[in-house]
Every structure is written in structure tokens, then in C-alpha cells.
Amino acid sequence: MPPKVVLDWLYVGVFAVVGIVLAVVPLIVVWLLAPQMRLPQKELTYESGVIPFGQAWAQFNVRYYLFALVFVVFDVEVIYLYPWAVVFRRLGAFAFYEMLVFLLILMVGLAYAWRKGALEWV
Amino acid sequence: MSTFVEILKAIGLAVLVFTFLAVVGAMFGVYMERKISGWIQARLGPKHVGPQGLLQTIADTVKLLQKEHITPRRADALIFNSAPIIVAVAGLLDWVVIPFGQVGNRFLVVRDINIGVVYFAAMASLTVIGILAGGWASNNKYALLGGLRAASQMISYEIPLALGILWAAMIAGSLSTVSLVEAQRGGWFIFKVPPLGLLAALTFLVAATAEVNRVPFDLPEAESELVAGYFAEYTGMRFALFQLGEYAEMFAFAALFSVLFLGGWDEPSLSRQWAWVWLVLGAGSLALVALIQFRLRHVLLVRPIFILAVMAAGLSLILFFGVMAGRAQVLPSIVWFFVKMFTLVFFLMWMRWTYPRLRLDQLLSLSWKVLLPLGLLNLLITAFIITVAR
Q1: HEC per residue, A46-113
Q2: What is the pLDDT of residues B90-130, one digit of tens each?
Q3: Which residue in A94, A113, B164, B340 is a FRET match for B209, CA 20 to 30 A apart?
């Protein structure tokens, strides 16, 4: 019998595989049941009824990228907070001050991004 | 050999959970949504297929199964076709760690993973990949905008969401969903360190609403401006898979909210001093039921409230008599899990017809300038209180 941790992730893996299979089954049913009639007009992408011009794969607003960048910083921070939250009660006051310093540095980072206008959507 | 048995067990459970999600999550969820939307708009909602229109979504699924599978010529076919599967599988994977209840000493949970809530957050954010892939691969301008909006919105709200999870994890000292519920026996986290528990719960609820792209945060789908957003190009069953993933996710977040803040499957307090609360609540709800039944019977708008009041009256009176009879547990734990989950889902559906959609800049500044500092401060202050109170 493998240890519990291995079993946990074995279950997750099995769930992923079974999920994919069960999601593909209705698609196969569709392939068997539904009519298939290819027409060039049907295969156009929708653009309010006019024939689409150009590709949608063009440049898009850089703002989206900016938010993704700020997100990465804070997401990494949150990952560090998880283990801290679990052992916080056992470690006592030291853990609190340690985390206070960490969070203060981050808040300075947030204030910097805010001040620089990274959080504005213009 | 035993590993083989475990794999078989896992396959069985996966099929079971998937069926549960398809039937309760998607089919009943869509029915519930349409019925409640109807009542709130003074319509009847689905009515003709089956009793009270209960079979409407099944009929819709059969219809969707017969719909043609169209892949736009200019779309990236591989990514386009795998995106709905990613979303549906992410919705299913969330449910691995959700505990349904307790029978004796056994917990009704697929796997009690020791980092359950982190796992949940990770799987929930898989949806972003599916949505962004679907929006981009369609090669449709509306879909691309929807996908990009979804991505920026979901990653922005992931951090307040994680801060809400962290708050509960800090109080419980554990990341496993089962021990989180166990830690709330005799004091749900929403009432802990008042009013900070409530604040953390609200932060989490707002972030969760944004994570599942529901009104007032439904910009990625915004029918009135982006047609259908990222799934504008999807037909038939692939559209249904997107819906399945979304409803699975919504129910999963409702379940997680009750696990983190409302004590999961835990029954509300049964000590004698609470008996009068249940009596007053039960009597009040009964009065409301009577009022609606005899005076407002034909007002469609109050029907959701009527159903809620019937539920509240029944549960409160059962609890009252249970306390009086000195019972330790009145209703099975799984009943409480479903009561809490469906009440929250109802609340989300109610919100849909109460608030208008936000603008993208408002949405992002709500996350970064309000919820994130608030969540961090809440975490720090609660940690400070715990440290001082030691």
C-alpha cells in the first residue's frame, strides 16, 4: 500500500483522466448523432453579421500584461503565507513579527505599483 | 494489488462525482437559475417539460447533443476543441477535497489532502487557462476580449480569495478541508474575532463571485457588449461543457465558503441556551410562510422567499425539538452541507438580478485597491490579536 500522500495524488490523477474521458464521451455522441454539413458561410467567425476583417490575433492592450505582472508578485507572496498560517499558532510572537516585516515590505511594493499607476486602467 | 483496488475505487468515485456535478450542478443548477430569474422578473420560468418544468434542462441537453459541431475555419482547431474539456475537468477536480459530511468516524470526502485548500485554489485557477485558450483560439474579436477580460479578472481576484482562505487556515492551523470543518465545531469562523471573521468571509465571497464570473463581475461573458464573450464561437455540446465547468465551479465555491466560514457539514449549535433562538426563528419563518400563502400567493417575486422561509421554518423547528429532546445530532450532516451550499448558490443567483455589471477599471480597482489591502490588514490584525491573547 503506497503512503497516504501518494494515494492522494493518485486519486487526483485518476480524477483528471476520468474527467477528460467523461468530457469527451458526449463529444463522441455528438459526432455520431448530429448532422454534419460543412458550408463556408457557417465556418466564418461571428462578427455582428458582417464578414470578419483581419485576424483577431492582433496586438491587444498592454494593460492586461501589466496586471499579470503585478499578480505574479502577489501570488508568490501568498504561497509563502500558506505555511506560515499553518504553524503560526505554534511558533508564537516571533512568527508574527517575522511576517509583519515580510508583509510591510510587500505593502511598500503595492504602494509603489499604485503610485506608479500600474493599477490604473486608462 | 491494493494499489489496483484503489485505482478502481478512484475511478468509481470520479464517475460518481462527475454524475453528481452533471445532474445536481449543471442540470438542476441551470433549472434553479432559470426558475429564480423568472420569478424575480415576475415570469414563471420553465414550466412545460415535466412537473414544474423540472425536466427542461434534460430536454435541453438532448437538444444540444444533436447540434452540429462547428469549428470556425480560421480558429486554432486543437486548442479550440480542448478548451471546454479543460474547463469541465477543472470544475471536476475542485471536488476532490470538498467534504460532504460525516458518518460515524468516517468523512464523506474523496481525499482529505493535507494541503486541500491550496489544491482547491490551484485547480480553480486552471479554469483561467481553459477560458483564455478558448477565447484566443476562436480567432474572434469578441471572444478574444472576453478571454482577456476573464484572465485579468480571475488572476486579480485570486489574491483576495487566497487571503480569505489564509484567514481561515490561520485560525484553524491547518490547510486540510476536513480539519478546517472540525476546528469550527462550537464556533463557526464567520463569528470568530468579531467582526473580522465576517469581514474575511465577505472578502472571500466577493472574490469567489468574481472567480466564477458571475454578475456583478460577469464582464467576460457580458451578453450586451461581447455577445457571449469567450464562448461566442462554441456550439452544442462544447458550449454545454463550458456551462458544466462553470456551474461545477460555482457550486464548489459555495461549498468551500461553507467549509471555510460556515462550519461545512457542522450542525448549528444545539445547546439549551440556543433553543429560544430556534423557536423565534421557526415561528417567524412560519408567519412569513402564512403571510405569503394567504396574502401574496400570486406575487411571483416572493416565491423564492417563500421557498427559503419554508426551509428555514422546517429546519428551525426541527432544531428546536431536537434541542428539547436532548439529541446530540438532529439531522444527518450531509443535509446541512446541502442546505448551506444551496442557500449560498441561491444568494449568488439573487445577486445576479440585484446589481448591475461593473466596468473593467472599477472591477480591477476593487480588487487591487480595496480587497487586497483590506485582506492583508485583516490577516495582520487577526494575527496580532491571536498573539496578544496568547
Answers
A1: CCCCCCCCCCCCCCCCCHHHHHHHHHHHHHHHHHHHHHHHHHHHHHCHHHHHHHHHHHHHHHHHHHHH
A2: 988 888 888 888 887 888 888 888 888 999 988 888 888 88
A3: A113
Across chain B, what does the average pLDDT equal? 85
Q: Residues A50-71: pLDDT tens digits?
A: 777 777 777 777 788 888 888 8
What was the pLDDT predicted at B257?
92
Q: CATH assignment of A58-122?
A: 1.20.58.1610
* Prediction ipTM score: 0.86
Asked if the Cβ–Cβ distance from A86 to B136 is below 8 Å, we say no
The residue type of B68 is E
Q: In the 8-state DSSP scheme, what is residue B265?
A: T
- Say how far apart CA A31 and CA B81 lie, in whole Å: 13
> How much is the average pLDDT of B357-375?
86
Show residues of chain A in contact with B85, CB under 8 Å. Answer: 20, 23-24
Q: What are the sequence ranges of the domains in chain A?
A: 1-39, 58-122
Q: Taking the domains of chain B in order of start, what are their residue ranges?
A: 2-267+354-389
Separation between Cα atoms, residue B60 and residue B78, nearest integer Å: 27
**Number of other residues whose CB lies within 10 A of the CB of residue B109:** 22
Residue in the structure block whose three cell numbers are 422561509: B309
Looking at CA atoms only, how far is residue B68 from chain A in angstroms?
5
